[in-house]
Amino acid sequence: MKEIVLAGGCFWGVEAYISRKNGILETEVGYANGHVENPTYQDVCGKGTGHAEVCRVKYDESVVSLEEVLSYFWKIIDPTIVDRQGPDIGNQYRTGIYYTDETDLETILKTKEEEQKKYSKEIVTEVEPLKTYFPAEEYHQKYLEKNPNGYCHIDLSL
Predict the structure, then answer these.
(1) Measured between alpha carbons, how far is 49 from 23 in angstroms, rounded to an integer?
(2) Is the pLDDT of residue 157 over 90?
(3) Over the range 11-48, which residues count as b (16 or more CB within 10 Å of their CB) and which as e?
(4) Which pTM was predicted?
(5) Catalytic residue among 10, 45, 55, 152
(6) Which residues have C-beta within 8 Å of that of residue 130, sequence separation ≥ 6?
(7) Which GO terms of the molecular function aspect are on file (predicted)?
């Protein structure tokens, strides 16, 4: 089982979208790469914690490659916008790819380079090692599964 952590705006939609893909074994939403220990949702949304809303993705690389997982991710974000996706605005909604395995960096940068060819503006999606990660509160986990009419700016049919 491999792991990658993705920030693409509101974590509900990222989780709902990615979790439907073949080879994805587990998803969990949380907060990553900030400077506050065990933040709450309220902390992340308004107290300058530096955390991004993220989806931790565990996948079976014999079924789906990192390149494929990242191709799904690139489809659902606008990587040229700083601190915003859809109507969600704030540093916690920035886009990012946070890796736990240094050997994944080459693949990540290759997909970012390929994606850049689609845009005239520079891609601002962070690519960094995962420094900190804290699971979000239980009510955020599988939120759109629990709340089928819940808010989501991502087209889940892509």
Answers:
(1) 33
(2) no
(3) bbbbbbbbbebeebeebbbbbbbbebeebebebbbeee
(4) 0.97
(5) 10
(6) 5, 32, 33, 98, 99, 100
(7) peptide-methionine (S)-S-oxide reductase activity
153 occurs within a structural domain:
no
Instruction: Establish whether 152 is a catalytic residue.
Output: no
Tell me what pLDDT residue 151 has. 85
| Number of domains making up the chain | 1
Distance (Å, whole) CA 9 – CA 20: 18
CATH number of the domain within which 121 lies: 3.30.1060.10
pLDDT confidence bin for 17, thresholds 50/70/90: very high
* Tokens standing for residue 123: 């891609």
Q: Is position 155 within any domain? A: no
Assign 158 a pLDDT band (cuts: 50, 70, 90).
confident
